[in-house]
Amino acid sequence: MSKVLSPETTFDERIVQRTAAIGVVGLGYAGLPLAMAFAETGFDVTGIDLNDQRVQAVQKRESYLVDVPSERYESIDGTLTSLSSTP
Question: What is the pTM (predicted TM-score) of this model?
């Protein structure tokens, strides 16, 4: 059975233990702060965006939104990775 469907842990346990896989589609004004909030609390987060510049900025830990200063990346306790749909 796959890890996602494994009965070994319940959803609630994965949330409490910070082992749930979090994905955020779109790293704009709503998505990036949401992804960062999950990463700051210890989750491993993958952000997906069509905009390659946003993806590269997250990979370089650079800010592209006024509401998300670059210093906020320092408070991440989990991981924040970003992917683009373009090859």
Answer: 0.82
